[in-house]
Predict the 3D structure of the following.
Amino acid sequence: MPKAKGEIVITKEEQCTGCAFCQTYCNHGCIEIGPKFNLEGYLVARFANPENCNACMVCAWMCPRALIEVYKYEEAAS
């Protein structure tokens, strides 16, 4: 049975306040506050360690500004 994989997209980096709720509640270490600043001067979240993402959506649920989209897919069998 193929393992579910995921991809995280920060839809509006300019609105991210770097609160780190997404990072704090991700049990797989797939999202982190990165070194990039937005125009408001906040460090913004980024998708990290994509190999660990199973598209559980916790990061999206925890984002107070609803800026995270999660896409789930299954890898094709070889």
User: Anything to note?
Assistant: Helices lie at 21-25, 58-62. The CA atoms of residues 44 and 62 lie 15 Å apart. The two ends are 12 Å apart (CA to CA). The first strand starts at residue 4 and ends at 10.
